[in-house]
Amino acid sequence: MVNDLIDWENVASAVESVGQSERRSLAGHVRTILEHFARLETSPAVARRAGWQDTVSRARADIQDLLQSSPSLRPTLETAVAEQLPRALKLAASALARHSETPCVPLDGLRYDVNQVVNDWFPQL
């Protein structure tokens, strides 16, 4: 019988591994967007803003691709935003410090939601 020849435990492990990889990818794209939102909102720099917006647009496209191929990831977006925000703010703070920039507003007060992450919203410039 064919079912007796299939290593179901290995198949289940492989499927779980793919799911974890997709969740990590989603989290990375969300973190990138949040970091660039924070940079846009806090950095006094003007010249790099278009590049940060381009990065956000690319990350949003990657998220849309992930959600299209794996719709089951959609419910995890809110958790990804909540988990990645502190990491993104830390990355933004490091980037500002490396460029000797003082944030225009405190980073620790910034909050973003899923709709802002996945839709065409950008922080006020």
* Structural class by helix and strand composition: mainly alpha
State mean pLDDT (0 to 100 scale): 89
Helix content: 55-70%
Looking at the structure, what is the overall shape? elongated
Number of helical segments with 4 or more residues: 5
Largest sheet: none
Number of domains: 1
Question: How big a fraction of the residues is strand?
Answer: under 5%
Q: In angstroms, what is the radius of gyration? A: 18 Å
Number of strands: 0
Q: What is the chain-wise order of helices and strands?
A: HHHHH
Q: Which residues sit in consecutive blocks of at least 5 with pLDDT less than 50?
A: none
The N- to C-terminal Cα distance equals 65 Å
What is the topology?
Blueprint: H1 2-5, H2 8-42, H3 49-69, H4 77-98, H5 114-118
Helix pairs in contact: 2-3, 2-4
